[in-house]
Amino acid sequence: MCIITEAEMIQNLCIIKKTLDEVKQTIKNIVFINNEAFFGFLNELHCTNNETVSEVLNKLEHCIPFALTEESFSLFMSSCHSEDAEKMENFRKDFIKSCKNDFLLLLYTISDKEQWDNIVENCEMLRRKNYTIMEEKRMEQL
């Protein structure tokens, strides 16, 4: 696992936000059949760096504040009650996907600089915390 730098984090957040802002104008009259279709569409958008939104989100995974919505909490609780390792891994992946979608929706809907600054600040706090944890683990292994 590699933790990105603060500059890389901000750059990737900006890339996603720019892509989402640009597509907002073109999909005003489109109705998605369900949330899965909407998030599938957003995740497959190509950004200015020739990566999809999903690929950029993967780089940010350790910086994303995972919000617990009803759906993601349900997935999380399901994983706690499973004794099957494969099922637990699938629940874990679904939970992370759900949290990434929640974060993507947050980026899609923010409308002012204060909200943006708050997101960047929270992401940076998590990035630093995860970096510290990784460094501590690395030192333990030496």
Written description of the protein model:
The structure is a single chain. With 142 residues, the chain is an all-alpha fold. It has one domain (6-141). It is 72% helix and 0% strand. The two termini are 17 Å apart. The model has no long low-confidence stretch (mean pLDDT 87).
Q: What's the SSE pattern?
A: HHHHHH
Radius of gyration (Å): 16 Å
- The backbone outline, from C-alpha atoms, is globular
| Overall domain count | 1
Main sheet: strands, sense, barrel = none
Helical percentage:
over 70%
Q: Helix- and strand-based class? A: mainly alpha
Which residues sit in consecutive blocks of at least 5 with pLDDT less than 50? none
Number of strands: 0
Counting DSSP H or I runs of 4 or more residues, the number of helices is: 6
Distance between the termini: 17 Å
Mean pLDDT: 87
Proportion of strand residues? under 5%
List the helices and strands and how they pair.
Blueprint: H1 6-26, H2 35-43, H3 53-59, H4 70-80, H5 85-109, H6 113-141
Helix pairs in contact: 1-3, 1-6, 4-5
Main features:
0% strand; 142 residues; 72% helix; 6 helices; mainly alpha
Write a brief caption for the model.
The protein is built from six helices and no strands.
